[in-house]
Design a protein that fits this description.
4 helices, alpha+beta, 2 domains, about 210 residues, elongated, six-stranded mixed beta sheet
């Protein structure tokens, strides 16, 4: 059975309509916003770096097919902080260095500048002070508490550590310590610090007499 002429015209019309729909829907550029992280180099172990905000919003433009296959996880913005000493800086977001495919156009970046705070990290030796969870038991016993070591090394930014005089242990169960005579206790890390070495101390209980 021969294909009728009107059927051929319908097929051709359908193909033309499909092609036009594809060109309009999939071939027309559209805009999209994506959030990408900021990374920095180099990483100096003696500096603490804060970037605010840590991410920026990009408005990009491309055809649907390109955006459909685009992975946001594959891109980032890198800023070079090697020339900056400790301080607070406003640094331009280098959009020209974003590793985007050439078929994707950047329309806008927000914000265009980020705040970078660089702090010098230093170490300081400070005394450890024991903290007890059950102080009410102290009144009936004369005792002595010893710590080993008595001092720990705290590593923190200069503004955090300059007024730091002592650090504290986690709350100690006095009754348990009285029975066992010694206990390994964790040192509480001061707010804003990077590390405490050692992170544990030995607490020794020595009874000197009873009232």
């Amino acid at each position: 059975m021969k294909f009728r002429r009107e059927h051929k015209l319908k097929v051709v019309s359908f193909l033309i309509a499909t092609t036009l729909w594809y060109l309009v829907v999939w071939g027309k550029p559209i805009e999209k916003t994506v959030e990408i992280p900021i990374v920095y180099k180099p990483v100096n172990p003696d500096y603490l770096v804060e970037v605010n905000p840590p991410n920026v919003i990009l408005k990009i433009k491309a055809i649907r097919r390109v955006l459909r296959n685009f992975s946001e996880a594959s891109i980032h913005i890198k800023i070079d902080i090697s020339k900056y000493p400790p301080g607070i800086y406003q640094i331009r977001v280098p959009i020209e260095k974003i590793n985007l495919p050439p078929s994707i156009q950047i329309k806008e970046v927000s914000p265009s500048y980020v705040t970078v705070i660089i702090k010098r990290i230093v170490s300081k030796k400070v005394k450890v002070k024991p903290v007890f969870a059950d102080l009410k038991f102290f009144k009936n016993t004369t005792f002595k508490i010893e710590l080993q070591p008595q001092y720990v090394s705290v590593r923190a930014p200069e503004d955090v550590i300059k007024d730091l005089k002592e650090v504290y242990t986690e709350p100690i169960n006095f009754i348990k310590l009285k029975i066992t005579k010694k206990m390994k206790v964790k040192v509480v890390m001061p707010i804003g610090s990077i590390s405490v070495t050692p992170s544990y101390v030995m607490v020794f209980y020595k009874e000197e007499g009873k009232k």
